[in-house]
Specification:
This protein is an alpha+beta fold. It is built from four helices and four strands. It has two domains: about 30 residues; about 90 residues, 2-Layer Sandwich (Alpha-Beta Plaits).
Length: about 140
């Protein structure tokens, strides 16, 4: 198996080690492999394929980082046809951007991936709902 070197902040490494110990992983590599698999398959949900979706995407980053805010705004404009609404708020020492998107899975996946790739973005979370099921009761 090839060996890959990864740089990460000390705090993240400590969290990774604590997670590995708490869940009885054999080591860091096993946690990183599982995380990579999860990331690479998170948008492979057949329930959402070829369906119109509405998605909410929240992005958190440190307040006072104009480079990060500028890049998030650039991405908002890049995905202008998909973004139905956008709000920027200040919460504690953070900026919080909330996006509402109306698009297909591939475009929402691309938007989320590009936001996560912005150096300085702390978290990106999302929720997807098929537009053709809004207002319907879930099946058992």
């Amino acid at each position: 198996m090839p060996v890959v070197s990864v740089s990460m902040p000390e705090e993240l490494l400590e969290q990774l080690d604590a997670h590995a110990a708490a869940h009885e992983y054999t080591g860091r590599s096993e946690v990183v492999r599982e995380s990579a698999r999860s990331l690479l398959t998170e948008f492979e949900d057949g329930r959402f394929e070829d369906r119109p979706l509405v998605g909410t995407v929240s992005v958190r980053y440190d307040f006072g980082t104009p480079r990060v805010e500028r890049r998030v705004t650039e991405l908002r404009h890049e995905f202008d046809t998909a973004v139905a609404a956008n709000d920027h708020s200040h919460v504690d020492d953070y900026c919080l951007d909330l996006f509402v998107l109306e698009a297909e899975l591939e475009e929402i996946s691309s938007f989320v991936g590009k936001l996560r790739a912005v150096d300085g973005v702390g978290t990106v979370d999302y929720l997807l709902v098929p537009l053709d099921s809004v207002g319907q009761l879930p099946e058992n």
